[in-house]
Amino acid sequence: MTFFNHPGDFDVIVVGGGHAGAEAALAASGLGMKTLLMTQDLDTIAQMSCNPSIGGIGKGQIVREIDALGGHMAKNTDRAVLSVHMLNASRGPAVHSPRAQCDKKLYQSGMKRRLEARNDLSLIQDEAVRVWTEGSRLKGVVTLRNTRYRSKCVILTTGTFLKGVIHIGLLSFKGGRYNHPPSDGLSPSLEELGFKLGRLKTGTPMRLNGRTIDFSKCAEQRPDDPPAPFSHFTARLENKLLPCWITHTGAGTAAIIRANLDKSPLYCGRIKSTGPRYCPSIEDKIVKFPHHPTHHLFLEPEGFETGEYYVNGLSTSLPEEVQTAICASVAGLEKAEIVRAAYAIEYDYSLPQQLDYSLQAKTVPGLFMAGQINGTTGYEEAAAQGLMAGINAALKIKKLQPLILRRDEAYIGVMIDDLISKGIDEPYRIFTSRAEYRLLLRQDNADLRLMDYGLKLGLVPEKFKLPFEIYKDAVEKLKAKKQSGSEAARQPDGETVQPSSRPAAQPSSRPAAQPSSRPAGDMAPWTREKAELSATTEMDYAAYIARNNKEAEKLKRFEHLTIPAGLDFAVLKGLLLESRQKLIRVRPGTLAQASRIPGVTPADIQLLWVHIERMQKSKVESK
After folding, report:
1. 8 A C-beta contact, residue 430 and residue 358
2. Is the separation of the CB atoms in 148 and 140 below 8 Å?
3. Are residues 567 and 537 in the same domain?
4. Cα gap 611→579, rounded to integer Å
5. How many Å from the N-terminal Cα to the C-terminal Cα in the chain?
6. Residue bearing the bigger pLDDT, 555 or 351
7. Span 429-437, mean pLDDT?
């Protein structure tokens, strides 16, 4: 076969232009790497293939973390926003989660513009069909046009395109997304390199013509007032926000679905792969939760310049005629016109335990993977992985240590640790419940937790360093002031004078105040109000935060205990057979990572600890 060798050499090639690919390319090029973003279609970069929203429970926290590290999802969301809600606002701050509905075209064009403006970043419309290696050495990628692109690192962010198959009723056809071809070449290439692949399933609801919806039968859901920006660097949202609407299914809907289950690819055996547990199809809801007479549906606008509405909660793969009947059974949708039919899609993914904690493949140095190829679902999870893969590819080329976030530092750390140490048996989605230190990982303190990393890397512009230092100092001074005020309230006999009717041991249950957009001098874009909010939250929950910090400190002891790369678990005496097999498969880097592998017992960890200390002692004595 004759190849055309592209004349340019790249440091990093990113395969795929979705949310993971965009963040990976921006991160790598932002760290000075000559980067190429390769995608099948340059007009679908960062396309919101499913719900045109960013954020949600746990997801909103991740987007704030991406922003603090110097990523672009939050800033792009603020530019494209059309509705904003703080979820769980009536509950404690550990679970406050921002969510924004976006104009999907504005979001897409905004992210493409960011990519096009980057000097060290090139874009090419082509399809990678093979990871190019010579022996065990990564060389780059080979494309459908028989062009070879040479690079030091490759980041695969393939979304749902690997051998994608779309299902609508009993009709099935190839596709990575509706009206877009799949990527059929990369899966065999990965298998040739020894990677184990699996199959997963996801889906998307129908889109409706808003002109044919009777909103008078729906409940209006207005955006927050005042609306809070997603990005730490956005002073205020400029767009005029729109409402969303709520309706629900009923007994008629359930009857239609039950009568047509024989036409569902999910229930007649055509779909054999596992779908997301926490975003089930309407068929699954009716079959698995028959005790629920109704299910909420959220009608969400797809943009300022379109009349299309996304029907959140009505994901299905039933035939189009059944989808039409379902809509007709719902209040407000009796005469609604379907402009895009709902469908399910099956696709390949690579088992994430085959990566290390930098998202680099264990067996092919320089090859990174991010997003749905690792078994996750959701724009936010994908973008976070793309950001980390882009950062770590650049750090590898610079011969620097990778950036690996701990579970007590970030939801990003929780997610990556879950993927690598536990693996997946269904599409992985982040939730606040997955984080044992969620009180430390609030959406309001993502900057305090992670922006120093972003500044040190250079992904957060230097001009924000001094304002951020002033803001951090203001938070600490306010905390000290509140602490001294609390101590002054104590009487000589030790009895505490309560400053309000709320018991001292109980944290405040009020929703977090929205940060003010008023300038704050040298602290801008941060504000005095935001500093007061952060300090108040820290003091309200001081006892609980102290407990979390104490537990996290115990974890750090194990995090610093590195497992030697050459340690042979197969010959280590005393390990349970199951533990030995899982340790060999995952190859954890630290004792803490080993302790989180399902099936590895505390006794196994103790044995490993003793063995590592003996190895270290023997190494010192031999010098």
Report:
1. no
2. yes
3. no
4. 15
5. 54
6. 351
7. 90
